[in-house]
# Entry
Amino acid sequence: MGAILLDGEAVAARMRAEVTERVAELRTEGVTVGLGTVLVGDDLPSARYVAMKHEDSIAIGMHSVGEHLPATASQEEVLEVIARFNADPKVSAFLVQLPLPAGLNEERALLAVDPAKDVDGLHPVNLGRLVLGTPAQLPCTPAGIVELLHAYDVPIEGRHAVIIGRGVTIGRPHILTPDMVKPGAAVVSAGTTFEGKKLIPDAHPDVAEVAGWITPRLGGVGPMTRAMLYRNALRAAELAAR
# Structure
């Protein structure tokens, strides 16, 4: 018997609907929810991902702001855009799209983001709050994975979790094979690798014959990551309005 597919598209759609409703409510209260992006260079996957975020945020009813700098931009020019977004009350939260072109310091850029506007939840301040168990913006991908597991009533409390290839979106095509999976386990493939335009998951297709739940090749973690992004932007606007 094959594994149950963890349909991230369906769950993310419900989350976006909830965010859309709340954004509309805040608008009647005079509160703008704005999502900003900083894109440097012409990396095609990054550009496509940023475009998708803007399309979604506009559909949700958010104020969408994008700044696209050339690959030749200096560190100071990147920091100036970040400072402008930090100070803009119409930008509730924003992100600096990675990777940055060679020669730019990603750490300096990320540290310059106001933690309260860190929509990705990756600022050291927010990660520190997460470790301490205090309220903070949550990293979108792991938070989205937890939401997806909850949506399918996958039991996680007290369970043993194994993380393979820990890192920032590190992908290894089919690194996870059926013999490595405990029968009935939940398998979530979050790494990304492309062969041309085709996305190849970390889990070998045959893992689905062993696992109890598994994310599909397309429509698993990706939609959940983006849905958490919009929820984080909404949360930032709500906190700023208090």
In short: The chain has a mean pLDDT of 92.
